[in-house]
Amino acid sequence: MEPNDTRTRILDAAIEAYLEKGVNATTVRDICARAKANVAAVNYHFGSKEALHAAVLEHSMDLCHRRYPVEEGMEACATAQERLCLLIRNMLRLSFPDDPYLERLSQLFWLEVGNPSPEFVPVNERFTRPLVQVLEAIVAEIIGPRADTDTLRLSIAAVVGQCMFHSQNRRFIHMIYPDKTYAPRDVRDLADHACRFALAGLAAVRASLEATP
């Protein structure tokens, strides 16, 4: 689309308004003022304020996942351990984009994770559900057939939690460690640490399960 396309301007304006004020505090009038569009343009192009919100989430997630596909390189991995480490690296790359615009878009996802809206449900199903299924298969292979559903889910949460803690709590982490940064090298180091920690933990889970009569 051309940069001055009304629909594109409304999408971009909504993104900035949501990041600045939050979704609930943002009005159609706010968005249209930023977009230099008539207030009727939201209904014309999207149908409703809620549909615009859904379009913003879909647009943002689609751009980020196209640029940083989480399963990229998976076919070259020989073991479940290698696939898990690659997935962790790709998830962190997605959570900490080196592109400033995509970094802002990724913030919309974390706002939804903390307080999910109805518009987030279909977007989450499209982008997150497949990742969960991949993780389930990988972690199940690592911890072995003796793991029950609860053990599998707890193990996945422990793996993903390392990534989500940093992604979702950057401001809090900066309060405790003001010198903490998330430059590309820092993100690579974080991924390496998360891989070591995850593999050691999952190996311990498997050993415990196999030692149980």
From TrEMBL:
Pfam families: CecR_C, TetR_N. Residues 4-64 form the HTH tetR-type domain. Keywords: DNA-binding, Transcription, Transcription regulation. Transmembrane segments: none annotated. The keyword Transmembrane helix does not apply. InterPro entries: DNA-bd_HTH_TetR-type_CS, Homeodomain-like_sf, HTH-type_TetR-like_transc_reg, HTH_TetR, Tet_transcr_reg_TetR-rel_C_sf, Tscrpt_reg_YbiH_C. It comes from the Bacteria. Residues 27-46 bind DNA. One of its GO terms (molecular function) is transcription cis-regulatory region binding. PANTHER family: HTH-TYPE TRANSCRIPTIONAL REGULATOR BETI, HTH-TYPE TRANSCRIPTIONAL REGULATOR RUTR. This is TetR/AcrR family transcriptional regulator.
